[in-house]
Amino acid sequence: MSIFDRLHGIRKKVTAGAIAAAMLIAGMGLVAPAYAADFTLVGPDTVPSSDKFQITALGLPSDVATDDITWETSQWRNAMQSMWPMNQGNTSTWDADMSPYEDGSVTISATYQGQTAEKTVTVEKKPYVYLAGFELNGEGLDGADGEYTLNLPAGGTVETSSTFTPENATYQHLVWQTMDPSVVRAGADGVIRAVGNGSTDLIAYSYGRIHKKTIHVTVGGDTPITIPVESVSINGGDVTMQAGETKSLSATVAPSNATNKKIAWSTSDATVASVDNAGKITARKAGTATITAKAGGKSDTITVTVEAALPVPFDSVKIEGGDFSVKAGDTHQLTAVLLAAGVEVSSDDTFNWTSSNTDVASVNANGLVTGVAKGTADITVTVGDKSDIVAVTVTEDEPIANSTTIYYPSSKFGADSTYLHWRFANGTWTTAPGDKMSAACDGYVSFTIANPDAKDIEFVFNNGAGQWDNKGGISGQNYMASGQTVVVTDNSGNYSTTAPCAVTIPVASVSIAGGDFALKEGASKKLSVTVSPENATDKTITWASTDDSIATVDASGVVKAVKAGKATITATADGKSASVTVTVAPAVEPIESVSITGTGVNNGKLSVETGKSVQLNAVITPSSAVGVVYWSSSDSSVATVDGTGKLTAKGEGMAAITVTVSGRTDSLIVTVTKGGVSSDRFSDVPAGVPFHDEIEWLAANGISTGYVDGR
């Protein structure tokens, strides 16, 4: 008879007993006990899954017998949902063992002497946390990696305990299976009982057959003396780590000759600090976690404090703009940046500025250089053990001219018809008639030639119609000059360097120091710009960005990275401009979650035939976050997974496939079948129970020993 028949038989028996009692009372002419014509059921409206709760019948005698009232529910135990009365009478305790996969509701009813009352209870699911594994502990258990040995005398017992990983796993039950119940047995309470002499295997399963431990048991013979563990101590005490670091712990078990010295490690919060079976801690994120070492029923704990990871380390420091010149008494602002693999990074480190010769040039803590006296000096910036140097040349004389302006009396050829035909010394002449000169002031026309290298200029004048003026009218004798301003006073070649009137000195060029650069989202950088000539009348800089959604720039030249992409930053002064490109890279974002997807994956489960492969994918949230993806399988004899997420089915059974990215994990239960059919079935499990829920069903129904069909 199946367990369902047994359950329904109990219900029928209780109901039949109540009816027979009622008939007996009527046949004897007795008066049935008085009770309220209407009674009600009271209890909670909502309960969490797996919690126990009570329903009480109000309006019935307080001493009503169990056989006098029949309790029923709309959900008797099946593969997905169950409600089970723990005791009866006018108060019944129920176990809300609803499926973790969905919410549900049940209607509980009580029938007493023909009257029925009902109560509906909503059962809410709890977040399901997959089981990654478990460890066994117990006196005399010896071994590791899922294989243990145990020696017992006939009639002897060992009480075992289990440590589940993670500690908040939803499913934390064991099912014991003995290969020979005449030698050893184990109950749901974890107590191993030696029955008779011999050797056999005792297997503990959890969550289907995904996780198991095998104990090789020998009963009788020369049974060694079991020496219990007296204490466990973790060496080194509390630990402080930075996120991303790892540290291996060790523990001392006393006495040194204890029978079971195997240590089981666990953590109170794997999102802060995880620990593996060897005691290796991995710091995940800022916070605290308690690490426990347990052996032979004894334990010790330490506190792990995880601090936020340090900023991205830099590998160099660079002064932007390179070597430069400055006049004595003038200043020049230097800017330095930190780089990691060529990309600018932020840091709280201090920039230390120094000058090799403060008699020539000084520099303050902010990188502002002041020219003191003619000469050269090295300006050095140091950050940690990284440094960079530029040379500064201090001049006492006027800086070399960047342009030459030539003036000529407009009375000679006319204010609107005077041309300048010129060339740099030994260079190429302009195309005749040359550049048209413009009206200046005081009866002069002028033309400015860009001359950053202060070259000598050879030139003549003409009216554009064949009439020329060279030096003094002497053939082959042209005007020659250099400097900032040249004023030709007559056609004899006389000239001076004093401008005839107050004139506007135009900007010849604009340059941005450092060239193209890169920033991460949220970072900023101040650009340095040079306007030539230094005495230009209007050196006002206007800044602009081609795309403010990627990078903005303010009036002082500070660029702020907004989002990933490229933008062009332009500096303009008096019609001249210079541009650089800023490339904005995404900031490092924390990973909130990771989930497994792939063909056939449904609700955290996947079925694959032996020999076939499925490509799994790790989906990271948010999508802009990055991290290293690690794949693992709980049983490589069932299914393997490589570093790219390719799963290969090896042999029949079940395995948990786990993906880990920056401390975030997700698991997938894969069932490997042969020809699409699962061959292993337990005889007591109804056909409607999914293959992966067999062991869970057996545990819930109190069946803790037995055989797999045919084995």
- Strands side by side in the biggest sheet: 10-11-17-16-13
* Strand coverage percent: over 45%
CATH topology of the domain at 3-124: Immunoglobulin-like
Shape: elongated
Keywords: Signal
InterPro entries: Big_2 (IPR003343), CBM25 (IPR005085), Ig-like_fold (IPR013783), Invasin/intimin_cell_adhesion (IPR008964)
Domain BIG2: 228-305, 313-393, 506-583, 595-671
Protein name: Alpha-amylase
Blueprint of the fold:
Layout: H1 3-28, E1 40-42, E2 46-48, E3 52-58, E4 69-73, E5 83-87, E6 91-96, E7 104-112, E8 115-124, E9 133-138, E10 142-144, E11 147-152, E12 157-165, E13 175-178, E14 184-186, E15 191-194, E16 198-206, E17 211-219, E18 231-234, E19 239-242, E20 246-248, E21 251-254, E22 264-267, E23 273-275, E24 280-283, E25 287-295, E26 298-307, E27 316-319, E28 324-327, E29 331-333, E30 336-340, E31 343-345, E32 352-355, E33 361-363, E34 368-371, E35 375-383, E36 386-395, E37 403-409, H2 410-413, E38 419-424, E39 435-436, E40 438-439, E41 444-450, E42 457-462, E43 468-469, E44 479-481, E45 485-488, E46 495-496, E47 509-512, E48 517-520, E49 524-526, E50 529-532, E51 542-545, E52 551-553, E53 558-561, E54 565-573, E55 576-585, E56 593-598, E57 605-609, E58 613-621, E59 629-633, E60 639-641, E61 646-649, E62 653-661, E63 664-673, H3 694-700
Parallel strand pairs: 2-8, 11-17, 19-26, 28-36, 37-45, 48-55, 57-63
Antiparallel strand pairs: 1-3, 3-6, 4-7, 5-6, 7-8, 9-12, 10-11, 12-15, 13-16, 14-15, 16-17, 18-21, 20-24, 22-25, 23-24, 25-26, 27-30, 29-34, 30-31, 32-35, 33-34, 35-36, 37-41, 38-39, 38-42, 40-41, 42-43, 42-44, 45-46, 47-50, 49-53, 51-54, 52-53, 54-55, 56-58, 58-61, 59-62, 60-61, 62-63
